[in-house]
Write a structure and sequence with these properties.
Rossmann fold; alpha/beta; flavoprotein
């Protein structure tokens, strides 16, 4: 009933933050079992798990303030705790960082396959960028919610898109939403052209922009032409792999396209295979772990306040792996409850 394919990747942080490290959990293809009908078997001693736990504890202590090494797809997460989720954009002197580039327009919370398609099209025209708006929730009075992708993990995802974009990873450029909220559609395009000096834009067919979302894709094309920049409108990436029940997200704007709303709903349902299809990758959950968060040799337990992005729904996720630095992986089970995230390494046969 429980299938494999999940991964849990652990990475050391080089930031001096209460002996913290970053823990990335990549769930892929796991099924959920409700907590009310399942409990973990008592732990048994295992040499490799003990060795693994000792290594983990040693690294948490000895790596205090050191730089982590990575290989393959293991990301560097040293900035996880040194950069706030709401950091403003850095001041830029002279030309805009996106000057001469092609910017993809949208809300890039999930960095799903629809967003990836925007960057692919942008890369076919020029240097690809994602134009992201920060501070929208605060300005619009939305209830705060955890991001789907942790801020410190976004660069890893964008780097993984390089193979789709002519071996060039798209870069992300942030603009404070408050600075553009009241711009008319024309003023917004003029900002892109005259202030940011972009050469072109790429947007989805349902893209809305300008004050109170008064501009649509056709107006974007017209205004860009008047301002002398290229505009490319692409069809939405549709969610074709699921039944009609899953395609109905309850969003009035939803016509069956891949969306961040669908990703959030799939995570809430614990359907990690569906999440992976929408993201085009395994979901990676980033946790902050301290020495006191390891109550036993084989257990890591952290409160939800230590989660840097959106976890899957309440339940037990099996067939996961835990990896510390360059050490070999150890099978584990991940338990998500209303207050905490628990990671328990599992038994494996002696080699």
């Amino acid at each position: 009933m429980l299938c494999g394919g999940s991964r849990v990747l652990q990475h050391l942080s080089d930031h001096n933050h209460h002996n913290s490290i970053g823990l990335g959990l990549g769930f892929c293809g796991a099924k959920i079992v409700q907590l009310s009908s399942f409990f973990l078997r008592p732990s048994q001693a295992m040499a490799k798990s003990h060795h693994f736990s000792r290594k983990l504890r040693q690294r948490m202590i000895s790596s205090f303030g050191s730089h982590c090494r990575t290989s393959g797809e293991v990301p560097i997460l040293h900035n996880c705790f040194s950069q706030r989720e709401d950091d403003p954009e850095l001041p830029v002197e002279g030309l805009s960082p996106v000057s001469g580039g092609i910017v993809a327009l949208g809300k890039f919370d999930a960095l799903h396959i629809g967003h990836r398609e925007l960057t692919i099209q942008a890369s076919r025209i020029g240097a690809p960028y994602l134009l992201s708006f920060v501070g929208m929730a605060e300005v619009l009075g939305w209830e705060p919610r955890a991001p789907i992708v942790a801020k410190c993990d976004r660069q890893r995802v964008l780097t993984s898109w390089a193979s789709y974009c002519g071996d060039r990873a798209p870069e992300e450029y942030e603009i404070e939403f408050a600075s553009v909220r009241h711009l008319t559609p024309r003023q917004f395009v003029e900002k892109l052209s005259k202030e940011l000096r972009v050469c072109g834009v790429v947007a989805g067919e349902n893209y809305r922009f300008g004050y109170k979302a008064s501009g649509d894709a056709s107006e974007l094309v017209r205004l860009c032409e008047e301002c002398g920049i290229t505009a490319c409108i692409i069809n939405s990436v549709m969610d074709m792999k699921q039944g009609s029940a899953k395609r109905d997200s309850g969003d009035s704007k939803d016509r069956g396209q891949v969306s961040s709303t669908r990703v959030r709903q799939a995570l809430a349902a614990g359907d990690m295979r569906y999440v992976s299809e929408l993201l085009g990758r395994a979901h990676r959950l980033i946790l902050r772990v301290r020495t006191q968060d390891m109550p036993s040799e084989r257990m890591i337990s952290v409160p939800r306040s230590s989660i840097l992005n959106l976890p899957p729904g309440i339940g037990i996720y099996k067939a996961c792996l835990l990896l510390v630095g360059d050490e070999s992986s150890v099978p584990c089970t991940v338990v998500v409850d209303t207050s905490n995230i628990h990671v328990e390494t599992e038994e494996r046969s002696q080699e």
